[in-house]
Specification:
200 residues, alpha+beta, 3-stranded mixed β-sheet, 6 helices, globular
């Protein structure tokens, strides 16, 4: 299987991550990227799950892609089958440096107006957001860029509450078996056979 390419500038400008957009089916992601390196069920009804490729999370609700997210130490590690072009981004990148780049490229963005907040999110029109830690004394880690996400366009309310949403999702999966083929995370057998035949 040839690696799939994706770029963060594509996410910022178009809301797409390589061939993937919000709403892409879980089967399509599996066909492109193969088996996830890790998978987690995130609710008791087993209708939602997270597939991980390297450090990058693909969140699904009812088998439809609802969020792409990364807040790991290596923000751009897509594992063996996903090659990520970070554009000009890097972990711990200062907020002011990013704003200078965005202004020079004339990219519209919003957020991070309160420089006294412990953390903030730069939000783009197409659904991409970049998370920054501002306060070095807040106990959140090193300052600078520490996460990126792609979700449905214009979902500013979700952006505002994103730290709470992620904490809730992480608490729900505690104690859940992390197998790529358990329950919600298991593709139908005919899809698995098709995926493997395609790879070969």
């Amino acid at each position: 299987m040839s690696p799939t390419n994706a770029s963060l500038v594509g996410a910022i400008e178009r809301g797409s991550f390589g061939p993937f957009v919000i709403g892409t089916s879980r089967q399509s992601v599996g066909r492109s990227l193969g088996d996830p390196s890790d998978a987690t069920i995130t609710n008791r009804s087993r209708s939602s799950c997270i597939w991980r490729y390297g450090a990058i999370e693909f969140h699904f609700d009812n088998d439809s892609l609802s969020l792409i997210h990364c807040d790991a130490e290596d923000l751009f590690d897509g594992g063996q089958t996903l090659v990520v072009d970070p554009w000009k981004l890097r972990r711990k990148m200062p907020l002011q440096e990013l704003e200078t780049i965005l202004d020079a490229k004339e990219l519209h963005y919003a957020g991070c107006a309160d420089r006294y907040a412990p953390e903030c999110f730069i939000q783009f029109d197409r659904g991409c957001s970049l998370g920054f830690i501002i306060d070095p004394n807040a106990g959140l880690g090193s300052t600078g860029l520490n996460s990126w996400s792609i979700r449905k366009e214009g979902n500013r309310e979700a952006d505002a509450h994103f730290p709470t949403l992620m904490a809730s999702a992480n608490s729900k999966d505690k104690g859940t078996p992390r197998s790529p083929y358990s329950s919600c995370t298991r593709l139908p057998d005919h899809e698995l056979r098709s995926m493997r035949a395609h790879r070969n």
